[in-house]
Amino acid sequence: MSANLASFLYLVSGVLFIMALRGLSHPTTSRKGNLYGMVGMGIAIVTTLVYATPSFGGFVLIVAGIAIGGGIGAVIAKRIAMTAMPQLVAAFHSLVGLAAVMVAAAAMYAPESFGIGTLGAIHAQALVEMSLGVAIGAVTFTGSIIAFLKLDGRMSGKPILLPMRHIINASLAIALVVLIILLVTTQSTTIFWLIVAASLVLGVLIIVPIGGADMPVVVSMLNSYSGWAAAGIGFTLGNLALIITGALVGSSGAILSYIMCKGMNRSFISVILGGFGGETAAASDDGIDRTVKQGSADDAAYLMANAQKVIIVPGYGMAVAQAQHAVRELADKLKAAGVEVKYAIHPVAGRMPGHMNVLLAEAQVPYDEVFELEDINSEFAQADVAYVIGANDVTNPAARDDKSSPIYGMPILDVDKARTCLFVKRSLGSGYAGIDNTLFYKDGTMMLLGDAKKMTDDIVKAMDH
User: Is 393 an active-site residue?
Assistant: First the structure.
């Protein structure tokens, strides 16, 4: 295959990746977007294999690696529960980072195979590219592992705030710059591994202070990191497709992180420097009457059956209970009775970007019934019932009313403005951000304590009586 043809095919795959991102920007076109992405990746892989013309042994190893990795990925994708999707995404990000480190190490020890010079005489430009790729890759690797452990419940979701953490992080960042300069001037493999070690530590230190409501931003941010790591290694390899793909993933992840931070009224820098989450819940002597009104499925069924408008607010509680199909059945029952039903989605509901949209799509909820915060928030005042399913932090009025709250200023869904708010939750405990929800104690709120799926099923049954 000629270089011109390979470049053309890489360009085609790049265009398909752009179309994939475009398709994934809306639920109605997400399947087509996935298809574009898969075709583009297939073209890039085949082009690389043919253009590189590896030896027979190398070709066998590459095909074997694709088969093993693809097989493992297919099995995991088939078995994974939707509730575990955020931690799966974080785990896959870590593999991208690790791959960048491994490729950079291979280039360091066998530069002639990559056309970047010889051992001890690597081109300075390639060393800079390699250093950036391996540093970002190592940060992505350990940062994604910490995110996975937090999301999977194997590590506390609360922030771990080390003394002088900002000074430590700044010192490590300066040390990395110095080490990269030393690597370019000395080409020492020892310096290379010091860069890797410092970056691995920095990845841990960046993510451990972040918890609670900032985790969706972390997942998006790590996605961006993995893209830049791939782009950096793409320059080292001289692979146009890898550069394009990495740049697309990196930039789109950064833009998404910015959009989500804006939706939370948070700055991206403040999240990186140790976001909120896991703070101590409000003290019991803060003047708030903590008497709650607890209801039953029969009470909820009566209120919704006699309503004209119901807004459903899904949260992580729906994901944990796998209640999306029951919620769809409830909505269908209400619509059949002439009740207007809409769904309200907060940009950071769940544990990753678009988490609730994916769950609702799985339950085949019509796309035209699902609305983002800015499009539906004004309608809660006209709603008879807001049915909240575990969306704790994103409905907390403290973000709007309490200037002393750590989440003050974060846009929330104004469910408390509905005539009645039915809140389904296992207990009165705080949400993932560790902050007490004052919504529980408002006059218009009725708590429905229990498993979200069972409670929703019971409401549907009660409506039949």
Answer: yes
